[in-house]
Amino acid sequence: MWPFDLVDWLALCIPVAYLTILVGSLTVFSTLYRKRQSAKTASLSPWFPPHLQRNIYLTLLHKEDPKVPDSILKAALLRRATEDIHRIVQVRNAKQALQVLLQRGSVGDDLWQRFQRAEKEIEEELRDVVNEANAYAPNWGQSIFQSASEMAQNTQIRTQLTDILSTSQAEKEWWEKRREEIKSDFYKELEDEKASKGPGTETSTVKSSDDDAVLVEGGGPAEKGKGGKKKKGKH
């Protein structure tokens, strides 16, 4: 009876030990893999440059002597939200194109991980801005990004207008230069055409035109004869 129980016990322990070793190995591998991926993700360069407007706002917020007025803090928070609007637009525009490139294998997983981390940072930033805005005024967090969007659009329009004004002078100079080139080419073609006709061509043309004028004014010998006969008949 005892040897049979021992065999059964050993037969039961072997699969259990195998499963324990297998599960333990998978757990260790998963833990090490996650740590390695986390370290790799942390070592990747950020998608966006440092958030200067957020740093300015936090610096003003924690300044104690002298304490910054709330009006300046609100303005700094609004500038921070405006920069967030710019980053949201960049993320939305890049996401679809990046997904297509990732499916085609044109970009690596590192770039996609950077993008996903940027999305998470944007979400946390938006929540933080909303909480800060509601701390200054009730329900301001619901409208702060609308005001920031209008400011971003005005800034973009001013930038485009500045670019247009800066390029208009250069375009004007280019057109003036182009007009002078066309004018000089036209005069050159006229001189080449005169030179190709030769010096006697214009003189002969002038002579023939003078002779024709004389013939027209005089009426010709035939017309004179006819006129003389008519005068004699009257006498």
Question: How would you summarize what this structure contains?
Answer:
The protein is an all-alpha fold.
| DSSP strand count | 0
Beta-strand residue percentage = under 5%
Low-pLDDT residue spans: 201-235
Helix tally equals 7
SS class: mainly alpha
Mean pLDDT: 77
Radius of gyration: 46 Å
H/E topology pattern: HHHHHHH
Shape: flat
Q: Key terms for this structure?
A:
7 helices, 235 residues, mainly alpha, disordered C terminus
Question: Could you characterize what this model shows?
Answer:
Helices cover 86% and strands 0% of the residues. By secondary structure, the chain is an all-alpha fold. It has a domain at 39-148. The model is unreliable at 201-235 (pLDDT under 50).
SSE inventory with pairings:
Elements: H1 2-43, H2 52-61, H3 70-104, H4 109-136, H5 144-197, H6 200-218, H7 220-234
